[in-house]
Write a structure and sequence with these properties.
The protein is mainly alpha-helical. The protein has helices at about 10-15, 20-35, 40-45, 55-75, 80-90, 90-105, 120-125, 130-145, 165-180, 185-210, 230-240, 260-285, 290-320, 325-345, 360-370, and strands at about 220-225, 245-250, 255-260. The chain has 15 helices and 3 strands. It has a 3-stranded antiparallel sheet.
């Protein structure tokens, strides 16, 4: 009698056998996921049983290292990956993406919660109470998400900064802004915000006069929450401009990159966060309108007027400085360095307008910004 041939299901013959094969299969599925195809079906083929193959866990590690290396080279920091993941994938895929980043060489050991006694994926699946197929589905979705991340300008690498941020000054600014955000009295909140901006401006002017030359620019990202992200990005822009920085908005991912020296970047981040809190609170409290057109117009008008007032405050502070004739050339040199760095990093920036459709929202936003009296408080 001839030898009997056993029929093997097609999915069994296609199932990977080694860690490298599992890694390749996960990358292929992730690539399809990045193009809009869900990875659950492929995950069930890779892990049809109740036990997760060791080769699958090792393959996930290999695939993750390959993808995350490209992400890191593209300028994505852990906080950026976290912010983007919050907007694009579920909590399981987000968690796995962050673990993949932490597992990569050079990451802080404190971010690694797992042990080396068994593969990370095995421990991660147990932690989240997931079946092997569910765990691999999250792996595929996490890797697919990471594949979609474009190359960015790495924060802090425009040119190296020469000093660290003055934490003592920033602590005073943080305290003022925290009081402004928590105050139930508008006039008090407005005066505190004005005082914070004045303190930041005076500190910046003192710094540029003391230093031998213009500070070398760096960059950082400010992530914005929906809705009305384009209107909120305008507020970041005007705060950045008033604090001697440049800003550009990436509408694909809802963040603004700001370029300037380290102290000014920290000041912009602090003041922007506080003003967004106060603007949102004033917008919601306004009884005149509740629709989207009103609220977007409110925020655009608020940002526009805040920009005017911040510019006026900066000009007044410069004029009142002990040595304005010496200060102006130093500031001009600083602005030139920032502009040069910004142009190098973003050679093809396009200006876009924000549409305002509610006159009522525009006037309400401007009134709210007028009440701030930013730059008018003097000590």
């Amino acid at each position: 009698m001839g030898k009997q041939k056993r029929r093997i299901p097609a999915e069994e013959t296609a199932r990977p056998r080694t860690a490298e094969e599992f890694g390749d299969a996960l990358l292929a599925a992730a690539y399809e996921t990045a193009r809009g195809v869900r990875g659950a079906a492929r995950a069930k083929q890779l892990a049809p049983d109740l036990d997760l193959p060791a080769e699958a866990a090792d393959g996930a590690r290999l695939a993750g290292h390959q993808v995350i290396s490209r992400v890191r080279r593209g300028g994505w920091l852990p906080e950026d990956v976290d912010q983007a993941a919050r907007r694009r994938v579920d909590e399981f895929a987000r968690s796995y993406a962050l673990d993949t980043l932490a597992a990569d060489a050079g990451q802080c050991e404190t971010a690694r919660w797992w042990t080396e006694s068994e593969p990370h994926l095995t421990q991660w699946a147990a932690k989240h109470i997931l079946t092997p197929a569910e765990a691999l589905t999250s792996v595929i979705e996490a890797l697919g998400f990471l594949m979609t991340l474009p190359a960015l300008v790495p924060p802090g690498t425009a040119t190296p900064a020469r000093h660290t941020v003055d934490e003592k000054k920033l602590s005073r600014v943080r305290a003022l802004l925290a009081k402004a955000e928590s105050s139930s009295f508008p006039e008090e909140a407005e005066a505190l915000s004005a005082k914070a901006q004045e303190l930041m401006t005076r500190h910046a002017l003192d710094r540029v006069l003391i230093e031998a030359g213009p500070e070398l620019p760096a960059s950082r990202r400010i992530w914005l929450d929906t809705p009305y992200v384009d209107a909120k990005s305008l507020l970041v822009h005007v705060v950045a401009k008033a604090n001697r920085c440049r800003a550009v908005y990436d509408s694909r991912w809802d963040f603004v990159t700001i370029v300037g020296d380290e102290d000014d970047l920290a000041a912009v981040a602090l003041l922007t966060t506080s003003l967004l809190v106060q603007a949102t609170r004033a917008m919601i409290a306004d009884p005149a309108g509740r629709d989207r057109a009103f609220r977007k117009s409110f925020l655009v008008s608020y940002a526009t007027r805040i920009g005017e007032r911040l510019d006026q405050a900066a000009e007044a502070t410069i004029a009142e400085s002990p040595d304005p004739d010496r200060l102006l050339p130093v500031l001009a040199s600083h602005d030139l360095a920032v502009e040069s760095a910004f142009t190098t990093l973003f050679p093809a920036v396009v200006s876009k307008s924000v549409t305002v459709r509610s006159p009522e929202g525009w006037h309400a936003g401007r009134s709210a910004a007028d009440r701030a009296r930013l730059g008018e408080t003097r000590s």
